[in-house]
Amino acid sequence: MMTTFNVPTREEVSATNQEIFDNLEKAVGFVPNLFATYAYSENALKNYLDFSNAKTSLKAKEKEAVNLAVSQVNNCEYCLSAHTAIGKMNGYNDAQILELRAGKASFDSKLDALAQLSKNITENRGNADASVVENFFAAGWTKENLIDTISLVGDKTISNYINNTTKIPVDFPAAPSI
Hints:
Elements: H1 15-28, H2 33-38, H3 44-52, H4 60-73, H5 77-89, H6 94-101, H7 109-123, H8 130-138, H9 143-166
Helix pairs in contact: 4-5, 4-7, 4-9, 7-8, 7-9
């Protein structure tokens, strides 16, 4: 039997995390359950938010392409639901989101190379196929973009693993199955 994880409330977390909860409440309107789960640790929530919000060469819409592809490979219901909502806020439609989850983007050749690379890196635990990397560069991406993409794959994988291990309830509209 696995230990059950509740979603920690503001009162159940450290003073440092309470302040972060307050800031999330102001910025997002609520504290997402996954972020609250990070707050079991004194440091993980701040560390994650700092890493996740760090400067990158990828635009918000490009980051969502990576997030969707990685979360699909890692079969993370929480992150698929959250990033489906965020993807829509960044201009993707339902069909495009499903394609990105599958690691492709027939609607944009540059995003297609990004989604393929993200999926391939995740599936192969960082051992990307040379042809996929070359396709990424041929589509116009740079070495800086490659490093930032790999960092983002790691960022999203952490969230995927936390949710997949704790089974925290999803507090976003459910992502459709594919």
